[in-house]
Amino acid sequence: AAIESAGLVTNPNTKIIDASTAHRTNPDWAYGFPELDKSFRDKIVASKRVAVPGCYASGSIAICYPLVKAGIMPRDYPLVIHAVSGYSGAGKKAIAVYESNERPQGYDSPRLYALTQAHKHLPEIKKISGLDYEPIFNPYVCDYFAGMTVSVGLHARSLAKHVTLQEVWQTFDAHYKNARFVQVAPLMGE
To answer: Nearest to residue 36, comparing CAs of 178, 164, 185, 163?
Structure first.
């Protein structure tokens, strides 16, 4: 529907901001994550078509893009992404089940889904992060309304170059130094 709707706009000066997955990997659309680097910001400013990043994709790309760009994570890295989210992003039907007094007991614990590895965010994560292959993606939905965490494990022997934990943190800190909406937490220890 988003592709069809965008096609109905005839005025070339109309700016379209699409929150669906329809245009996130389309090279004719700007990818709406300006903190990734100047090229993303410039394309957003210049474009009349902007695709809003997905939630899991934003968390994943925020980690992977700087590592690939810095030459730490090779483009063919065998990436596994673990993500945990509240149920608010699961849609109206899932929200109704989670908030029901008669919900199934299984909803009390974190629930792994997307086991077929066909999750809608995988093409977006691959393309925007600069990866050669789609990662394995393990998302969990949990018994709380909102919030998300994404983690990417790094196997030192599979990285493009040897780096310490401090150097990985410095990569993120430098990459997001002037970002308005992305903050790099202090390194907690090794």
So the answer is: 178
Residue with tokens 């090779």: 74
DSSP string, 141-169: E-SSSS-EEEEE---GGGSSS---HHHHH
pLDDT digits (tens, 9 = 90+) for 131-154: 999 999 999 999 999 999 999 999
Q: Is position 55 annotated as part of the catalytic site? A: yes
CA distances from 67 to 74, 152, 172 (A): 8, 11, 8
Distance (Å, whole) CA 173 – CA 49: 30
How far is it, in rounded angstroms, from Cα 139 to Cα 85? Answer: 8
What are the DSSP calls for 79-114, one per residue?
-EEEEEE-GGGG-HHHHHHHT-TT--GGGGS-EE--
> pLDDT at position 1, please?
87
How many CB atoms are located within 10 Å of the residue 124 CB? Answer: 23
Point out the residues of the chain with pLDDT beneath 50: none
* Per-residue exposure over 30-64, b if at least 16 CB sit within 10 Å of its own CB, e if not: bbbbbbbeeebeebbeebebbbebbebbbbbbbbb
Of residues 17, 55, 114, 182, which has the active-site annotation?
55
